[in-house]
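Objective 1.3, modelling of assemblies. Example input:
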Amino acid sequence: MKVLVPVKRVIDYNVKVRVKADGSGVDLANVKMSMNPFDEIAVEEAIRLKEKGAATEIVVVSVGVKQAQETLRTALAMGADRAILVVAAEDVHTDIEPLAVAKIIAKVAAEEQPGLIITGKQAIDNDMNATGQMVAALLGWAQASFASAVEIAGDAAKVTREVDGGLQTIEVKLPAVITADLRLNEPRYASLPNIMKAKKKELAEKTAADYGVDVSPRLTVVKTAEPAGRAAGIKVGSVDELIGKLKDAGVI
Amino acid sequence: MAVLLLADVNGGQLATDSVAKTLSAVKSLGEVHVLVAGAGAEAAAAEAAKLDGVSKVLLAGATDYSHGMAEATAALIVGLAPGYAHVAAASTAAAKNVLPRVAALLDVMMITDITAVVDADTFERPIYAGNAIQTVKSSDKIKVFTVRTATFGAVAATGAAAVETISGETAAGLSTWVEDKVAASDRPELTSAKIVVSGGRGVGSEADFALIEKLADKLGAAVGASRAAVDSGFAPNDWQVGQTGKVVAPELYVAVGISGAIQHLAGMKDSKIIVAINKDEEAPIFQVADFGLVADLFTAVPELAEKL
Ligand SMILES: Cc1cc2nc3c(=O)[nH]c(=O)nc-3n(C[C@H](O)[C@H](O)[C@H](O)COP(=O)(O)OP(=O)(O)OC[C@H]3O[C@@H](n4cnc5c(N)ncnc54)[C@H](O)[C@@H]3O)c2cc1C
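Predicted structure (tokens):
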């Protein structure tokens, strides 16, 4: 079974986000970029499926700017077999919307015929939590979002999902789309020899036009603003003082 | 044109608080029809019919729609959607599973986690774990969105809307439900509680998490946790507060042994009063805390529970 894993290049999760003074967005020039943490989990899960013999080939795909090549190389160094870069934007500040990304991934899937697609549950930049579900919709496949455990059994996958009240287990017919939650696994670091090897792995370059997908946005960004800050608080010296303050504030 | 509001139903019970808050978020958009889906949801539909601002409840009682199964529920909503300008739901795990699928099938963009309705096409939503607030204007014919309910008040329940039974498309054979593991609790629900007490990695073990629970029970509070506490097995996954967990905005949030990473702050920084108990006076949580207590939690938390 071939597994397709879409990965996104995003601001590193440790970087302090700065909103641009003109309100046009978040400053991404000269900022450390990394693979979206949830996508790392998705790549790791695919590799584990391959190590267990449930998957035979892992293809990673990224839709975005040319620099997403680095993100794909990281996935190859972790253990993916080959990569496809779909260039859909030139400016690093252009975020291709999940709907357009999903359309491109669905086209890639039609060509590659994977038995499973694993995506991260959300990207930590736009926090949209939509691409995986949208890919499943466009392909007419089953979906298992927010996965914390995956078991492949024949032509089905048994997936445990993190839901509001606890955990839900469902079975989806393959091919299907699974979206990875935080606790699915802990992604490995790429070793130096594997980073060297990854440089020789195949990385095909395409454009959104190659797939006939219009990536123009449906949502116009009117403005981007800093959130309202909180006024500085105080330190209390004891539990008694804390209780006094909370009583004064009327919350207990 | 009206709003179609997908209600969360768990084990036949309406998630009343989330529906009532979503209703107040969308009230400027016109008439609202609430969709209650799944077998055995008659009581949930009756409950929804009482909420102010609901003009009609649609009850789709087929078992295919039970347990929030995405494929069938999305097919049902897509069938109904042409009659609506907006398809909305509270930002619950169930809605975040289903609505993006609906949006793609309708060829419209999903608008996740809105925090304000500016006008019929324009919404505010947090991005980058709440480090920026974006205002977006949709050019799509139908707007599909989820609402972050934490900052909205709940509508009252003085109404009496009609309940109409409907049927629709399903998605036979794609997926089957196996089981739900949902822990029953007498504590208030995390996203609607007036007080939340959360523990982090500093609590150190599952056994010591009892300190947090004891303090919560003393305050009549819900219990939350940081990702580190959940990953370490101190607390169940559904207690996680943050960018990728639950978003809460209670009157009082008490963070114990939590450092205050941005991903955690994303889930609680709109709380009215924040208390931090941490032994490291440099911990970033103190930057958002109204009242900070630099102390060892193993002495401060029992003392606090004792004196309340
Ligand atoms: C993609 C992604 C998503 C994430 N989503 C979330 C999310 O939704 N929610 C979330 O919480 N995190 C999330 N995180 C993780 C986040 O970055 C932090 O790692 C996490 O919040 C840290 O948890 P913590 O504060 O409990 O642990 P730590 O950062 O280890 O802090 C422990 C604190 O306890 C204090 N302490 C220790 N012992 C004591 C004592 N005896 N008495 C008093 N204080 C003590 C320490 O001083 C320290 O400040 C996410 C991370 C990523 C990459």
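Chain B touches chain A through 89 residues (CB under 8 Å).
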